[in-house]
Amino acid sequence: MIKKIDHIGIAVADLDSALQRYQGLTGQRAAHRETVERQKVDTAFFPVGGVRLELLRGTAPDSPISKYVAKRGEGIHHICFEVDDLDAAREEMRRAGFVFIEQQDEQGAGGTRVAFIHPKSTGGILFELVEYPNAAEPQIPNSK
Asked: Which pTM does this prediction carry?
């Protein structure tokens, strides 16, 4: 069901400053930047090995990322697992007792479909599931 860790989401207050910081840390520029309007977030991805670091900045005060940063400060927001079939994975995980944060919009960066597992059912960690279009390779570059 879970193929691999796709990315680690990191909430930031200032994306431009964070981009400079992570460019210095990884020795490379962000491989992909995108605004996901429906989720009210700006994103930037840094490939590191087989996993990506996703920087997230809220674009509105009511954005989940803006609220997270206001309450907890910058830091790790979620861990994302890649799955082949989001609907099947979600159903199997629901049967196993996991609770999902229902969203009307399941569109993520790069044309993906996403779903989030509520931290109350995972011991306090927010997990995201991601399905790439047509089970294709990620549209957002990932180093191998």
From this structure: 0.88
Tens of pLDDT, residue by residue over 43-97, are: 999 999 999 999 999 999 999 999 999 999 999 999 999 999 999 999 999 999 9
143, part of any domain: no
Tell me whether residue 85 is in a domain: yes
The whole-angstrom separation of Cα 86 and Cα 118 is 16
Parallel, antiparallel, or unpaired for β 51-58 and 113-117?
A: unpaired
Count: domains in the chain: 1
Of residues 5, 19, 39, the one with CA closest to residue 138: 5
CATH number of the domain residue 114 falls in: 3.10.180.10
Q: Specify the amino acid at residue 1.
A: M
Whether the CB-CB separation of 9 and 104 falls below 8 Å is answered with: no
Residue 66, domain member (yes or no): yes
Domain membership of residue 50 as a residue range: 2-135
d(C-alpha 67, C-alpha 4), whole Å: 28
Alpha helices (H) in 8-139, listed in sequence order: 15-26, 64-72, 86-95
